[in-house]
Amino acid sequence: MSEVNQKRRDFLAFSGKAGVATLVAQAAGINLGIVDVVKAEAGGKVDPFRFAIISDAHLYSMDDHKFDQQLIDAVNKVNNMNPMPDFVLFGGDVAQNGTEDQLVKGQKILSELKMPMKIIPGEHDWYLDMGEAWRGLFGDETWSFDHKGVHFIGLNSILVEDFWTPAGLSPKERMTVMEMLESPIPGPWGVHEKQLEWLAKDVKDLAPSTPIVIFTHSPLWDYYPRWNFQTSDAPEIREILSKFDNVMSYHGHVHQTLYNRIGNMSSVAAMSTSWPWPYPPVELAYPETRMNRADPSIATDGQGVQLIDLSESFEGLVQYKPFEDSLTPFMQDGFKV
Amino acid sequence: MKTRIAIRRALGLGGIAAATVVASTVFARPPFTEEELAAQMDSLYEVIQVGYDLWHGSEPKMTSNGLACANCHPDTAASNPQTFPKYMTMYGKVVPWQEMVNWCIENPQLGERFDPQSDEMTAMKAYAMYLHRGLPIEPGLASEQTAAVPVAFGTGFKREPTGLGVDTREYVPERR
Ligand SMILES: [Fe+2]
Ligand SMILES: [Fe+2]
């Protein structure tokens, strides 16, 4: 039996044992985690709050491009949440071609958010000028902060080995290579050595009971490396964070709903505001977290924003808030991580 | 005996039983040589390369908002060529795959459609079909999120590697 199958069997076995009473007790959402039972006992560390995630706007340079409005819709959706989220995380790929005008347009739209925003870069933001414009607009791409008892970490996960200098590629050519999801050239991304060292230092003095949220563009597990639905040094990241009771990872880049759990880490993907990506040809441990196949005749189908409520015991209720009716019944009321 | 059946079949004289007997063993002309087969495949790969380029935005007429087929369909995933012809709600009738591509060109991409018989459309179909080789044909199904065959490296078909980054491996197609 494959590892995925085994995990799925464990999951199903757990669901069976939990039974109807548990599901009723968790009326707000569907419990996907096995660890939550243990987690609930740790308790009492978080001053409950909510945050939102917007991701993958992929803005083009043309005026009044449809993706501009879709990002505006996302901002409005978050602004109208009640109660309002304390802050917003943006999951990368503000721009499509990494040009300054696209990044500036994105920043302008995102500045309409009524709450603070933290952001990490995507590959589409970065490879025209190696992050120069992005840093000028949004600041440092590696960060951490504490909020109401939770330690939030942001890393730049889209770094690749230099393929352009030996070949003498222009910045535009480098960017074109990186814009293709299935590009044969760059190979796997990662956060690389310096950020790993930074991360180890950042969490060194934190107690294992500290609630941790880590935020990256790409997933911190091997989903589909072909499309960089992975982070090459994710095993090292997970190792550094292995001392913690519970780690939540949120990420962009995959433009779809998705959940996974590895060890002490749950992983949740963000929908995009631009276009949905198909699920790649791999088996998922939790296939029930997939969204419906988007209808191409509905321009905003399969896209949206996400809202996460964190409880006192650092349990997360993840709710996808799509623009259209994109969720399966299983996903409609959210799920717990 | 086999030759006679093959001739009868070539002339349209074979019954069902005869057709079953000769299904995969007898050719109506001598088999192609290895060289001929390789040359035919190379012609196909050249056309696939054109389709791959078009899919990734080589023809400006296909878009006025910057979007290419590959924005939503990396490795031609979820383009579902194995399910066409099928009923598409945007047409209210059964259409071939080429028409669906034209719909995407004209709507999400705000570009100019191709003649369904054009070399360009044939090239894109060749690319999509090659990346869906071996998958079951399921005409008419508004299937769920189907994916192309997994692509291990490169473009997924035979062509000269660029030598840039990790793109250095020669593609060897598996034999059927
Ligand atoms: Fe993206
Ligand atoms: Fe991305």
Quick description:
The complex is a heterodimer of chains A (337) and B (176). Chain A has helices spanning 3-25, 36-42, 66-79, 100-110, 123-126, 132-138, 171-179, 192-203, 234-240, and strands at 30-31, 49-54, 87-90, 117-119, 143-147, 150-154, 212-216, 247-251, 259-262, 265-269, 304-310, 316-322, 335-336.
Describe this structure as you would to a colleague.
- The complex is a heterodimer of chains A (337) and B (176).
- Chain A is α/β, with parallel strands linked by helices and 337 residues long.
- Chain A has a single domain, classed as Purple Acid Phosphatase, chain A, domain 2.
- Chain A has helices at 3-25, 36-42, 66-79, 100-110, 123-126, 132-138, 171-179, 192-203, 234-240; strands at 30-31, 49-54, 87-90, 117-119, 143-147, 150-154, 212-216, 247-251, 259-262, 265-269, 304-310, 316-322, 335-336.
- In chain A, the strands form two sheets. Chain A has a seven-stranded mixed beta sheet with strand order 1-13-12-11-2-3-4. In chain A, strands 5-6-7-8-10-9 form a six-stranded mixed beta sheet, with no helix packed on it.
- The longest helix of chain A is centred in the first third of the chain and has 23 residues, at 3-25.
- The radius of gyration of chain A is 19 Å and the shape is globular.
- Residues 1-44 of chain A have low confidence and may be disordered.
- With 176 residues, chain B is mainly alpha-helical.
- In chain B, a hairpin with a 4-residue loop joins strand 1 and strand 2 (93-95).
- Chain B is globular and about 45 Å long.
- Mean pLDDT of chain B is 85; it is low at 1-21.
- A two-stranded antiparallel sheet of chain B has the order 1-2.
- Chain B folds into two domains: 1-30; 34-176, Cytochrome c-like domain (Cytochrome Bc1 Complex, Chain D, domain 2).
- The A-B interface holds A 60-62, 65-66, 96, 160-161, 163, 167, 169, 177, 180-182, 184-187, 226-227, 275-282, 290, 293, 295-297, 299 and B 56, 65-67, 70-75, 77-78, 89-90, 103-104, 107-108, 144-155, 161-167.
- The structure holds fe (ii) ion (2 copies).
